[in-house]
Design a protein that fits this description.
Layout lengths: L3 E4 L5 H11 L4 E3 L5 H10 L6 H14 L9 E4 L9 H14 L6 E3 L14 H25 L8 H37 L11 E6 L1 H5 L7 H7 L3 E4 L2 H18 L3 H22 L14 H8 L10 H14 L4 E7 L3 H16 L5 E6 L7 H19 L11
Parallel strand pairs: 1-2, 1-3, 3-4, 5-6, 5-7, 7-8
Bound molecules: iron/sulfur cluster.
């Protein structure tokens, strides 16, 4: 309790976890966003076969501990892990080895994993975890509002500034008043987003951006892909962090059932339902404003994936494919599957794309892989893809007309 927990800045969601920790007396701070220097450090220290999230997290943490005058006994670094066909659990092992090599073995790393439901710590770990889940859902909903309104705003930059202000107010409220603060902050944010002048009479083609959670949410890693899709004429429906928690709890329920651990099963099922409840609660004040429905619980969506791929195989590929099917049902005219270079989960989803496309009326599908090196052809591929998306939207049905414009 007397040390500071530092969280790598996956995205604005890291601030939500830090705010929940502070609300329960844990000193928590989010590291600065990754940049060219941190990735260069990550590349220099890792072996070269690691995925992009590993390079960035290692780079961010090592740059932080190398600051002049840093006292290694003062901080703890937060690096989540998880099982499955993924290198995530190895990050902590690798980071520890690198720190020892640098003579910084005293630096502590904590790695909550999906196997323990990402349990947090401190004096009230369960309450901290529950508040963090609510705050993460809040950030997801703010980002939904940002993505749905920004392409139609009449005052350039207004939606971004409302998003930034709402995020700040949300994090302050969570830290100060916990759940009560969270609920009040979401209601206030909905009112502020409603006041953004937009013209949604002619809807742009909807593009679902899905895939591996780190590159999906990290603006540096994905080179601000959502804005790029918007710049080429699309509107984005993006995957969320809450999805990862829903996936984790759904998998845990399945595991406990397989092992006949009925008491643990009950706990996992309650956590899963809680996760769904907090997302719905965060979304409620926005229900009048947002036209895309909230994602269904994954367990239900998995049934639509089952004819093509067994969802019990788990991992983020299952998540991306399930949400792709759901998004197509909600009117998406294109799917972008993002992945770090050589990511197993991303490659599995990419491998299944022809089969899923065939089942989804030939919906355009674009796989983009990010390796941390500048890529020159994403813009060109995106433009070609958006051309197909527009054709697909025209072929399938007339562009949907929104409920109206505001204010
Ligand atoms: S899902 Fe892929 S990119 Fe993400 S940690 Fe696992 S292997 Fe790496």
């Amino acid at each position: 309790m007397d040390r500071t927990v530092y969280l790598p800045r996956l995205s604005d969601h890291a601030g939500a976890v830090a705010a929940a920790m502070r609300a329960y007396g844990i000193q928590a701070e989010v590291l600065p966003p990754p940049n060219a220097e941190t990735i260069a450090v990550g590349l220099a220290l890792c072996r070269g076969r690691e995925c992009l999230p590993c390079l960035l997290c290692v780079g961010d943490i090592v740059c932080h501990v190398r600051r002049p005058g840093y006292d290694p006994s003062q901080g703890v670094y937060f690096l989540p892990g998880g099982p499955g066909p993924c290198r995530l659990p190895q990050y902590r092992v690798l980071l520890r080895e690198i720190l020892e090599r640098m003579g910084l073995g005293a630096v502590e790393v904590v790695a909550p994993s999906s196997e323990d439901g990402y349990a947090l710590f401190g004096e009230r770990p369960r309450a901290t975890r529950m508040l963090a889940a609510g705050a993460l859902a809040g950030v997801d909903v703010l980002q939904k509002a940002l993505h749905e309104l920004r392409p139609y705003e009449l005052d350039r930059g207004r939606t971004d500034s409302v998003y930034r202000r709402s995020l700040e107010q949300l994090l302050e409220a969570v830290e100060r008043d916990r759940t009560a603060g969270l609920v009040a902050a979401m209601a206030r944010a909905a009112r502020e987003f409603e006041a953004v002048p937009v013209d949604r009479r002619r809807r742009r083609p909807l593009v679902a951006v899905l895939g591996e959670v780190f590159v999906l949410l990290n603006l540096f890693a994905n080179d601000d892909l959502v804005r790029k899709v918007e710049a080429t004429g699309g509107e984005v429906l993006a995957g969320t962090f809450s999805d990862v928690l829903d996936m984790t709890e759904t998998n845990n329920v399945h595991e406990q059932w397989n092992q006949s651990l009925y008491l643990d099963l009950l706990g996992a099922e309650l956590s899963r339902r809680y996760q769904i409840m907090v997302l719905r609660r965060a979304y409620r004040p926005f229900a009048r404003l947002l036209t895309h429905p909230l994602e269904e619980p994954l367990r239900r969506v998995y049934e639509r994936l089952r004819p093509h791929y067994d969802p019990e195989l788990g991992g983020e590929a299952v998540l991306a494919m399930s949400r792709a099917i759901e998004a197509a049902g909600h009117g998406a005219s294109g799917i972008v599957n993002v992945m770090p270079f050589s990511c197993v989960a991303g490659l599995m989803a990419a491998g299944m794309a022809p089969r899923l496309r065939a089942a989804l009326d030939g919906i355009p599908w674009l796989d983009i892989s990010y390796g941390g090196q500048e890529s020159t052809n994403v813009g060109t591929r995106l433009e070609a893809f958006m051309h197909q998306v527009v054709q697909f939207q025209r072929r399938r049905r007339p562009a949907p007309v929104a409920a109206g414009s505001s204010p």
